[in-house]
Amino acid sequence: MIRAVIVDVDDTLCLTEAASFELENDVLAKLGRPPMSREVHRATWGETLLDAMPHRSPGVDLDRFAQLFPAEHQRYLADGRLDVIPPENLEALDRLVAEGRTVLLLTSRTEREVRHLLEPDHVLAGRVTGAYHQGNTRFRKPDPRVFDELLAETGLDPADCVYVGDSPGDAVAAGGAGMRFVACLQSGVRRLEEFDPRHVTAAVDAFPEIPSVIARL
């Protein structure tokens, strides 16, 4: 039986690439820089923000970008333009919990970028029992050791876990850690043929399909 479902955040639990593209371009505009293209944003999607920005905007002042980004990020959150989790995705999480499965988050985001999702009044409260991010993991995807802290703290066996994500790097990390992996292709950023089939257990077109797929594993 699958005991734990570990879920990526961006373009898995919620669709964020398009909103993040607009957010980052708003910050670049404040720096007086031209906007990046959607193509380059998609090509570097999945990298940590400050690792990706030199490719998205060559020559950008990373320190200044990092200073301006948090306030703009908070404005997007307050306006409901970022990290909106659809009701049908929450219902899917409820099904997983009702079936006795533990739901955890594992993301490449920084602690600051994930903190609001862990507030006691957030819609994820009572659905998600833990979150792993750059603030409490030593490694980054696609390194399979990104799961080390999660496994150590929960006592879970990798064979009892499924990781749900949207990128080939997610699949590589899960496969290397001995976990099953479900590719969520809802965002349209990735196609199934981009994934190494050795690391993909199943694929879904939309997150609400996850409980049914996991029930069959």
From TrEMBL:
Which domain of life does this protein belong to?
Bacteria
Q: What is an example of a GO molecular function annotated in this UniProt entry?
A: phosphoglycolate phosphatase activity
Share an example GO biological-process annotation for this protein: DNA repair
Q: Which SUPFAM superfamilies match?
A: HAD-like (SSF56784)
Q: Which InterPro entries match?
A: HAD-like_hydrolase_sf, HAD-like_sf, HAD-SF_hydro_IA, HAD_2, HAD_sf, PGP-like_dom2
GO CC annotation terms, alphabetical: cytosol
A Pfam family of the record is HAD_2
The record ties this protein, via NCBIfam families, to: HAD-SF-IA-v1
Please state what the protein is called: Haloacid dehalogenase
Q: What is the lineage of its organism?
A: Bacteria, Bacillati, Actinomycetota, Actinomycetes, Micromonosporales
